[in-house]
Amino acid sequence: MSLAAEPISPLLRTASRSVQRVVSELRRGDLVMLQGGDGRALLVRAAEMADAPALALVRQAAAQGGGGEPALVVTDKRAIAAGLLTQAVEPAQADPMGAGTVVIAPAPGPSNKGTSGQGLTPDLVRLLADPTRPGHATLDITPIVRPFPSAEGEALLLVKLARLLPAVVVAEVPAARAAEVAARNDLLTVRGADVQAYQAAGESTLRQVVEASVPLLDAEDTRLIAFRAPDGGVEHLAILIGNPDPAQPVLARLHSECFTGDLLGSLRCDCGAQLRGAIREIAAQGSGVVLYLAQEGRNIGLMNKLRAYRLQDAGVDTVDANLMVGFEADERTYLPAATMLKALGFHAVRLMTNNPDKLSQLARWGVQVVDRVPHIFPANGHNIAYLRTKAEKAGHLL
Ligand SMILES: Nc1nc2c(ncn2[C@@H]2O[C@H](COP(=O)(O)OP(=O)(O)OP(=O)(O)O)[C@@H](O)[C@H]2O)c(=O)[nH]1
Ligand SMILES: [Zn+2]
């Protein structure tokens, strides 16, 4: 059951290298240069770290290159939650995950109610980008909707990959002067085309790194097989119980990471019970596999999931909370899961799930789902609304 390294194209290798580097800069709060697929150049900084000195640096770098004033870019879902847009951007104009891109550009001057006449300020960025900040925006600013692909949309994809709030501060500079501004300010540059290529193919190549025996309380005959993307990105685990016969449909569970539920035993969700329940059930049936996918919080990351929890504490449901933070209701793809299953030699599964999206995506990525095994556990006093919302809004088969 060993896996030869999947080939990765030189083009994707170059794309992932520059995307990963820039993601790391953004996570550190640094400024980067984006040469958009639409031919425009943007200075980009994560909105989450846009304090006063950071904004001043954006202004200064933009001014050096004859560029414009900073603007804030958010998703259409976030713009709606902030009261700046009334309806979502049409699917044809949205990025591949469904998010539309909205630019809020307060020009300096007295005419913009709510902006203090100073253009984009740290307070305004926080108010519009971070839903956990109290306060409401009443601005006389018409948001600009940018159809994807646009440089702004690519900038949003970058901060999503960085697992930060999906919002960026940008300033456009003339494309002809982008290289000069980047060099003068020691900025990493990324091409929008690379961001898109990475987004489309980033998780289709996974490598098996190491395999070790890890006897579990409920399944002693268990091996962990660790997979890593060749770009050094996130690591996923296969929890292989017994010796499943690849010639037969294997009993399988795709489990998205949930730090709070899996590790801490949080009662807000059903993840802990589902994970341990799957291991028990597979062991009882003799063999099977749990794929432990690094997709915390339906792939918005732990920090953003905790933000969504704060909104849920104020009465918002789990789907709307994701939208208010600026994400889609569910940001997961099961391409890594399909890649791992095939690498392990499994081409047909009996899938333990209540989530129809897992069934259809696995089929789409070339794994045959011969049967669905319901995977339901009793609700507790804390997760009943969460489970109801999954059934009513996310189509879960409960
Ligand atoms: N964003 C967000 N994520 C949550 C919330 N509650 C749980 N999660 C995440 O949701 C995911 C649940 O994963 P799974 O149990 O694999 O998937 P599922 O969609 O419930 O489908 P099945 O359990 O297979 O029926 C985990 O990544 C959790 O961290 C929430 O309120 N908000
Ligand atoms: Zn959970």
From TrEMBL:
Q: Which residues bind GTP?
A: R253, L254, H255, S256, E257, Q274, E296, G297, R298, T318, T353, K358
Q: What GO biological process terms are annotated to this protein in UniProt? A: riboflavin biosynthetic process
For this UniProt record, the keywords arranged alphabetically read as follows: GTP-binding, Hydrolase, Metal-binding, Nucleotide-binding, Riboflavin biosynthesis, Zinc
Domain named GTP cyclohydrolase II is located at 209-374
Give me the comment on cofactor binding.
Binds 1 zinc ion per subunit.
Keyword Nucleotide-binding recorded: yes
Task: Give cofactor(s), names only.
Answer: Zn(2+)
**GO CC, one annotated term:** cytosol
Amino-acid biosynthesis: present as a keyword of the record?
Answer: no
Q: Which GO terms describe its molecular function?
A: 3,4-dihydroxy-2-butanone-4-phosphate synthase activity; GTP binding; GTP cyclohydrolase II activity; zinc ion binding
Query: Where does the record place the catalytic residues?
Result: D330 (proton acceptor), R332 (nucleophile)
Q: Which residues are noted in the entry as Zn(2+)-binding? A: C258, C269, C271
Q: Which domain of life is it from?
A: Bacteria
What is the role of this chain?
Catalyzes the conversion of GTP to 2,5-diamino-6-ribosylamino-4(3H)-pyrimidinone 5'-phosphate (DARP), formate and pyrophosphate.
**UniProt family annotation:** In the N-terminal section; belongs to the DHBP synthase family.
From the Swiss-Prot or TrEMBL record, give the protein name.
GTP cyclohydrolase-2
Taxonomic lineage of the native organism: Bacteria, Pseudomonadati, Pseudomonadota, Alphaproteobacteria, Rhodospirillales
